[in-house]
Design brief:
By secondary structure, the chain is of the alpha/beta class. It contains 15 helices and five strands.
């Protein structure tokens, strides 16, 4: 099945696109008021959600060219609200605002569409606030929730949604979209698609950002540099500091711009007396920025751990003589070296140690302690 228009950038998701397109087309029993779009990181959950929203608003079912499609995809459509967060959780305040918005009738579009990205980050109180709105929706309102897996959403919510599951796109599909959409040469796109393991956003960054490739190479050098307890602890500290530096570099400009915009809005620095509540507003902004940095650090560290798992996957493939394409072709010499110096059993234990570190971080363990425990297990 091949669909163009708004579905063009929903990569490698033919089955999911077919289900969503059937709902847009009005096929009997295909449409419902609440959807749960699930899939692994990088599979394009938010892209699919926005494409579905655009197709719902489009008079032609998602042509990709009309004003309705354009405004939805660029985030400016009056009847499509998107809740996204850069923080660790979504609170009840933001959720109640969504519920209020969902109760409105469409102003110009065919539907009032509410997209909640990262629905797995809803607090329990926020999820309960959302539940009633999904149970009793207005007739022209459509909810689209996005989460990594159905189990990441409360059972009471997912039981009221129709689930659409996305899969990890193939290397070929990711490389094709990088070449077609971003103009990246085919070989660079293929290498980036392999390294990203189907994560479209990560593949694009690796293909276009030399610093990202350099940081990834530093992570993949870690297995060769840990020989004793001291080197394990130093490696853990270097990994944490590298992630922090990466996040700080990425957020420094945006954080400063946010502070200056808020000061300008409050009239601070114009010579006038500082308005009441200005100090509180600045303190609240600083708090949000710190929370955003915490999430970004955890996400960056998780990406590094995924890269380590891929490295040891290549080691295991060599040890078992598996006829599979390596994820890290540029690290072939290091992979062969470690494969020759260890056993498949020890490689599996190392993979388990990295996955255990990811689990520990998901339960809010101290990052440095979790990574130190991992590097000690990787010796």
């Amino acid at each position: 099945m091949t669909l163009g228009g708004v579905w063009t950038d929903v990569v490698g998701q033919e089955s999911a696109v077919a289900a969503l397109a059937a709902a847009v087309a009005g096929e009997p029993g295909a449409m419902t008021h609440a959807w749960l779009v699930t899939g692994p990181p990088g599979s394009g959950r938010s892209v699919a959600a926005r494409a579905f929203a655009a197709a719902l608003q489009c008079p032609q079912g998602g042509c990709g060219e009309c004003p309705e499609c354009h405004t939805v995809l660029t985030g400016t459509h009056a009847d499509v609200e998107v809740l996204t967060t850069e923080l660790l959780s979504i609170g009840v305040k933001e959720t109640r605002e969504l519920v209020r918005r969902a109760a409105l009738s469409p102003s110009n579009g065919r539907w009032q569409v509410i997209i909640a990205e990262d629905a797995d980050r809803l607090t329990d109180q926020a999820a309960n606030a959302l539940l009633k709105a999904i149970e009793e929706p207005p007739p022209r309102t459509v909810w689209i929730l996005c989460a990594p897996a159905t189990d990441d959403v409360l059972p009471t919510i997912r039981s009221r949604c129709r689930s659409v599951h996305l899969v990890t796109p193939s290397t070929t599909a990711v490389a094709e979209v990088l070449t077609r959409r971003d103009g990246i040469d085919p070989e660079t796109a293929r290498v980036a698609a392999l390294a990203s393991q189907g994560h479209i956003g990560r593949a694009r960054r690796l293909a276009t950002d030399a610093d990202a490739r350099s940081r990834r190479a530093d992570v993949l050098a870690l297995p060769r540099g840990i020989t004793d307890v001291g080197s394990c602890l130093r490696a853990a500290e270097r990994l944490i500091e590298a992630v922090k530096a990466d996040v700080a570099a990425a957020s420094e400009i945006s954080d400063a711009a946010e502070r200056e915009a808020l000061k300008s809005a409050l009239g601070i620095g114009t010579g006038a007396k500082q308005p009441p509540g200005a100090a509180t507003a600045l303190k609240e902004l600083e708090k949000r920025q710190k929370a955003r940095a915490t999430r970004a650090q955890r996400d960056g560290l998780d990406r590094a751990l995924v890269d380590l798992v891929a490295f040891y996957r290549d080691v295991l493939a060599v040890q078992l003589g598996a006829d599979v394409e390596p994820v890290n072709a540029a690290e072939a010499a290091a992979v062969r070296e470690i494969a020759a110096d260890s056993t498949p059993e020890s490689t599996l234990r190392r993979i388990e140690a990295v996955l255990a570190c990811r689990t520990a971080l998901e339960t809010n363990a101290a990052p440095l302690l979790a990574v130190e425990a991992m590097t000690l297990a990787l010796r």
